[in-house]
Amino acid sequence: MKLLFFNNFQLGVLKGDNVVDVTDIVSDIPHLEPQQLISGLIADFDSYKSNLEAAINSSDGIPISDVRVRPPLPKPTNIDCMAVNYMENGTRDEPAEINAFQKSAYAIIGPGDSMVLPDAPATVFEGEAELALVIGKTATNVKAADAFDYIFGYTNFIDGSARGLPGANVFHAMKSRDTFAPIGPYIITADEIDDPQNLRVQLWNNGVLKQDFNTDDMGHNIARCIEFITSIHTLEPGDILATGTNHRGLNPFQDGDLIELEVEGLGRLSFNVKDDLKRGWGRETHLEREEKGLPGSSPQQSGKYS
Question: How far is it, in rounded angstroms, from Cα 306 to Cα 303?
Answer without folding.
Answer: 6
